[in-house]
C-alpha cells in the first residue's frame, strides 16, 4: 500500500509540474512576500509538490449555457451556486485542475475546491479580493493565499492562519454539490463553466486529474495526523458546523450514499433543529434549520417522492416545501428555510479538522 501511495504521489507531482504553469489566465503577481507565525502546527504544513501559483487559479472565467455544456456527463459532480439570481455550475473535472475561481463581476466571490479532501467552499470576495493556490497543504487540505496581503488561508479552517490577515474569518456563501444532471433539473436556466479556460486540460474526463483517488478505502495522498477510523477514509459526508470558529465548532455528519432511498431527517445539532434532505440516487444532500419565525417545524414526505424534485410538508402548518427549502403552498408560502454552515467532504478530512464529530446513525 505504501509503495502504491508513493507511486501515486510521484505521478501526481509530475503531472502538476507539467500542467501547472502552461496557459493563460489571471495576473499571477502576488504582492508582498509573507512570513510570520501560524495558528496551526507548522510540522503539519507540507508542500503539495508545486510552487505558489503552480496550480493556476481562474479569474472571471467564461460561463456557457447548459445546452453548450455537453462536454460534461450527467453523473459528473458539480459545485452549484446561485449568484444574484443566476444559477452557475462549476464541474469537479475543471476545479480539480485549478482549485480556485475568482469572480469580481456584479457579486465578487471566490469558489475554492480541494480535490484531495473533496471540499468546496465559496466565500464573499468584496473585502478579501482575489485568491490563489499557495502550493502548501495542511492535513491534505488546500492552503490558499490572498493577493492583497499574501496571508495564508487553510480552506477547512475558514479563516486566515498566517500573515497580516491572521484570524480573519471568511464569509461563507451557500453552495450545492450534486450531479450535473440533478443540478440541471433543479435549475434549467443554469450556466456552466466553459472548458475555454486558456489552459489545455482533459476537462471532459471526470477524475482524470486524480485517477482512482476517490476509492472508498484508499488512503489520503499524503500521510497525516488525526485520521478517524469510524468510517472509511473516502466516505463522502455532508457535514454541518455550528459555532463561532475552528476550535468552537460543533459538527455532525450525514453519509452521502448512492442508494435508492429518499429521506427527510428531522434532527438536532448543537441544540439547533435541523432538517436534512437526502436523495442518494441523485447525489443530493442538503441541510436546513427547521425553525421559522420562532416555530420549530417537523417535516414529512408529501405524496410520492419517486419524482425528483419532490415536495414535502411540515406537520405544524401543513405548508408545502421544495427540496430547496422554499414554501410554495399553505400558511408559510413565500418563506425559506435558512441553511446552516455545511460542507461536503471526504470523511478522513472532516474527522481530522473537526475531531469527535457526531455521525448520524441511520
Structural notes for this entry:
The chain is mainly β and 362 residues long. 11% of the residues lie in helices and 34% in strands. Mean pLDDT is 90; it is low at 1-33.
In one word, what is the shape? globular
Low-pLDDT segments:
1-33
| Terminal CA distance | 31 Å
- Helix count, DSSP H or I runs of 4 or more residues: 4
State the total count of DSSP E strands. Answer: 27
Strand order of the largest sheet: 2-6-7-8-12
- How many whole angstroms does the radius of gyration measure? 20 Å
- In round numbers, the mean pLDDT is 90
Kindly estimate the percentage of residues that lie in beta strands according to DSSP: 25-35%
Structural class category: mainly beta
Please bin the fraction of helical residues. Answer: 10-25%
Largest sheet: 5 strands, mixed
Structural domain tally: 2
